[in-house]
Amino acid sequence: MRALTEAELLAGWEAAAGHGPAVRAVALAAAAGGHTFAEAGALPLGARDALLVELRAACFPGDLQCLARCPGCGEELDVAVPLSDLRQPAPAPPGEATVTAGGVRVRYRPLTGLDVLAVDPAAPDARRRLVGRCVLEVEGLPVDGGGELPREAVAAVAAALAEADPRADLRIDLTCAVCGHGWAAPFDVPAHVWADVDACARGLLADVHALALAYGWPEADILALGPARRRFYLEAIGA
After folding, report:
1. Hey, is 128 helix, strand or coil?
2. Residue 20 DSSP symbol
3. What angle in degrees, to the nearest 10, is found between the helix axes of 189-215 and 6-16?
4. Are 63 and 81 in contact (CB under 8 A)?
5. Most exposed: 68, 106, 146, 199, by fewest CB within 10 Å?
6. By three-state DSSP, how is residue 35 classified?
7. How far apart are alpha carbons 207 and 87 in whole angstroms?
8. Model confidence over 189-203: pLDDT tens digits?
9. How far apart are the first and last CA of the chain?
10. pLDDT tens, 85-132?
11. Long-range contact list for 67-73, CB < 8 A, 24+ apart?
């Protein structure tokens, strides 16, 4: 994947800014893969996050810096996560699959970003509704006429979804430097990539603001300047 131009990065940031995490993840994946929002939202979560990792690698090479709290002693740790740890190949989730549990046979598809967008995570039945969006058929009947899924079937489909698309719930192995406790910590790819994109975009806009005030140049002309020339002009005006 090629690095986004600064104008493309700002466009992706603008499309995502002001929205919640689920929208930001899809908007950034759309920018990364050259997709429409709907196309990026229809990707399985693991494929969406793989696009975000490649976006991060192309635009901001280097380790991802994050904080993690040790569950053993409570110490807050500074962690550098190499991009290579996040770029491990994973099998593509199947288009459709079936599982039998709770006395019913369920046909389902992978979980997508649009599914996550459609369900309020704070709702008391959020897990059931999320799983329900992936269900295509229950015992040969359309979902509309299949009634409520048994609890066992919901659990079985949820487990099958996680197993089929492991990148959707990425975890990294950490060891506490203080107490030696080791654990697999969840890693929120969209949140970390968004943090880098947001910081970069705000820095670019601050540069545009300073140079526009000083010289009256439009944003497009300022972004067209190479980094070295832009830095010279910023230093010249003391910004």
Report:
1. helix
2. -
3. 120
4. yes
5. 199
6. coil
7. 32
8. 999 999 999 999 999
9. 33
10. 888 776 666 688 999 988 889 999 999 999 999 999 899 889 999 999
11. 68/174, 68/185, 70/174, 70/176, 70/178, 70/179, 70/181, 70/183, 71/181, 71/183, 72/176, 72/179, 72/180, 72/181, 72/183, 73/176, 73/178, 73/179, 73/181
Q: How far apart are CA 168 and CA 25, in angstroms?
A: 12
Residue with tokens 């992978």: 110
Answer whether 4's CB lies under 8 Å from 33's CB.
no
Continuous segment of H or E residues that includes residue 70 = none
* Torsion angle, alpha carbons of 30, 189, 9, 216, to 10: 140
In 124-159, which positions are buried (b, 16+ CB within 10 angstroms) versus exposed (e)? eeeebebbbbbbeebeeeebeebeebeeebbbbbbe
> Could you tell me the pTM of the whole model?
0.87
